[in-house]
Amino acid sequence: DITLRFLLLPIYSQLREQRSQPLGQARLQFFGGYIHAKLATRLTEIPDAKDSITLVLANTTYDDDLELLLLAILVRQLGVRILRLAGLTQAPDIAELINTLSLQGALIKAPDQANDVQLKQLQNLSVETGQLIFVSGNTPAQADVLRRRGLMPLSGDIQQDARTIRDVLAGINS
Questions:
Q1: Among 146, 150, 145, 112, which Cα is nearest to 129's?
Q2: pLDDT (0 to 100) of residue 51
Q3: Are the CB atoms for 72 and 99 separated by under 8 Å?
Q4: For the whole model, what pTM was predicted?
Q5: Is 102 buried (19+), middle (13-18) or exposed (0-12) by CB count in 10 A?
Q6: pLDDT, mean of residues 2-20
Q7: Is 105 left (phi over 0), alpha (psi -120 to 50) or beta?
Q8: CA 142 to CA 6: how far, in whole Å?
Q9: Contact at 8 Å (CB) between 80 and 121?
């Protein structure tokens, strides 16, 4: 996990900055696919805690979800079970899954500059499920807007965010 966070993800970020150079996009796609596969595999290798809380992991943007996957790995290491949805997922589908499987909430990536329609969809997700919806990918300026809509914005520091998720879930279940 240290290698992923301090070596592979910084290399990926550097490649994202260089994507306008010749072969930059090809390098980014190749390396991004490699890291994505490693993170997804790592997520499945961590054993489930017995009788643990389960969150659905979903990306509601067209952006990559590498940081979201890394956050999910850290959260899972803290004893939270993760049910990962691959690819772009719409808020109504997430709500249906939470309600059908009686999950305790979701960890989602939202657009960093969500428009009113997207914010309303996220708010509906929270209202329709009655569960905690942790949101990553938002800007600090948008955090207050998300809170007012019943969502739990995360800071962007994945280690702190993992602890926040664990602590909030532990507080609710105690």
A1: 150
A2: 64
A3: no
A4: 0.86
A5: exposed
A6: 81
A7: left
A8: 27
A9: no
